Amino acid sequence: MSANQEIRVFAPATVANVACGYDVLGFAIDSPGDEIVVRNSNKPGLQITKITGDDGKLPKDPTKNTAGVAALDLLKHLGMLDRGIEMEIHKKMPFGSGLGSSSASAVAGAFAVNKLIGEPLSKRQLLPFAMAGEASADGAWHADNVGPCLLGGIVFIRSNEELDIAQIPAPKNLWAAVVHPDIEILTKVAREILPKEIPLENATQQIGNLGGLILGLIQEDYGLISRSIHDVIAEPRRQKLIPDFYKAKRAALSAGALGFSISGAGPSVFALCEGEESARKVGAAIEKVFKEIPVNCQLHISKINPHGVHVVS
Amino acid sequence: MSANQEIRVFAPATVANVACGYDVLGFAIDSPGDEIVVRNSNKPGLQITKITGDDGKLPKDPTKNTAGVAALDLLKHLGMLDRGIEMEIHKKMPFGSGLGSSSASAVAGAFAVNKLIGEPLSKRQLLPFAMAGEASADGAWHADNVGPCLLGGIVFIRSNEELDIAQIPAPKNLWAAVVHPDIEILTKVAREILPKEIPLENATQQIGNLGGLILGLIQEDYGLISRSIHDVIAEPRRQKLIPDFYKAKRAALSAGALGFSISGAGPSVFALCEGEESARKVGAAIEKVFKEIPVNCQLHISKINPHGVHVVS
């Protein structure tokens, strides 16, 4: 690579808390996502030279910026904190949408810098550094957005503490309709609304459904996927934070969705569908419900994105 | 079939509540198990003519006998309650062992009668009738013993209410060491010891481990299986009912077991192992702990039994 070459990467939005996969499952979609550009610099250390699309909200101090923290954590690990690197961050997805915005920045930051310095680590090995970036924004240590954003596809988290994650092959014709209504949900509120204790019976139902969803995905059994996409833990509590949630859910299921639930901590919602045509129909039905309230919203139709973060030319 | 031909079937013991698979997972082993013999009779209706191995504890009235209820439920469904059938029940496994004794009888009863009358239903279709037999003994509607006893292999229960179950392929070299210590645990006590509510954090851990176990089984990843076999819900409470449970667990893991937990509601315990040699070593280590107490016990070493109930000659 020439000294003045630059690397531009794209890190996609992700859907975490996939219904019964609350806290253990996430998947990547094609767009929206964040872009980060890095290039070598004569000035030692990492500098964030430009941020766009953030309405001036993000700090340029790399020690306080999600992408910066991820990159610095990686460089520190490699003993390369003195390396001169310039970083530009182009936020192309909204904050607090439930689509893994901070994860996308953290993953893009670690991935871009790793590429620039000659790719000493594999994608998989970048996980803890991206997690550190995400944790700096979010305060929590969760791989359910970072994992799929980095690796692509559907990612299952056995344990966040042990960073024990596994990729699940996505059925070929599995599509998502993701709708982001323009309302604000504070992650703190979405977390506090969950109880500390839940009925054992609910845990058993959730476990049954999560196992069914994993088997359904692996066996490409859309019927089993559909019977399994139910969240009896987070969704019944968090739905109150999203206007007309159940109306949107009924609309999605009536239009043929396999299942429907909240993306991350909301306010975005997602439906899984068999095929693009179904996803478009379902997405339109969900969008209609929000627009009638009226709440403005953005619709994203996407196959499960198998690639995760990648270099763009 | 000639009018005086008889059918002899064998239904195997099963391990349910497979650690993190509490209430959703079960598997069949080769032995012990129950045998049932059925033959045509000139006297209308089902009669239980002989029961062995039960110390006189089981009723010969078919409406009060687990195998009888399963068979009658099937015959009623088929409109054949008048059919003359003689049934002999040979109990070859202990009651209240946590090895699915009543399920084995229920499955054998339904399966044997279905064979005798020309096999109008598939194995899978016999599930609700065997469940009815099991429920008559146990009072609960659980498929985690009946499912694997009927179908063989490892069976996952998405929902007992919907009878939505799926078979999971067993890794080729997966063996179980099952030890039945001669102590009594009343199912009622084992159930009442479980709380009505559990911490959300425990539910999430259990969900993570259950997903990991399913993926590990499907991908034949013994490391992932081993990392996933943990029960944070039932085992910590029920272990008190089994003397030196943790000593036996330590012995099993030290001897190389992938994981160790309680079979069903106990008192039997099981270890999953990679290979027969490992299972024999682990089984001996567990046996030694119980014998030192001293508690008498029976050891069963078995591959995961892929067949379930079957006709024997």
UniProtKB/TrEMBL annotation, chains A, B:
Functional note: Catalyzes the ATP-dependent phosphorylation of L-homoserine to L-homoserine phosphate.
Residue ranges occupied by any GHMP kinase N-terminal domain in the UniProt entry: 69-153
Superkingdom assignment: Bacteria
InterPro entries: GHMP_kinase_C_dom, GHMP_kinase_C_sf, GHMP_kinase_N_dom, GHMP_knse_ATP-bd_CS, Homoserine_kinase, Ribosomal_Su5_D2-typ_SF, Ribsml_uS5_D2-typ_fold_subgr
Biological pathway: Amino-acid biosynthesis; L-threonine biosynthesis; L-threonine from L-aspartate: step 4/5
Enzyme class, spelled out: transferase
GHMP kinase C-terminal domain boundaries: 217-291
Descriptive protein name: Homoserine kinase
Record-listed E.C. numbers: 2.7.1.39
Catalytic activity annotation: L-homoserine + ATP = O-phospho-L-homoserine + ADP + H(+)
Organism: Luteolibacter algae
Keywords linked to the UniProt accession: Amino-acid biosynthesis, ATP-binding, Cytoplasm, Kinase, Nucleotide-binding, Threonine biosynthesis, Transferase
Family designation: Belongs to the GHMP kinase family. Homoserine kinase subfamily.
Subcellular location(s) of the protein: Cytoplasm
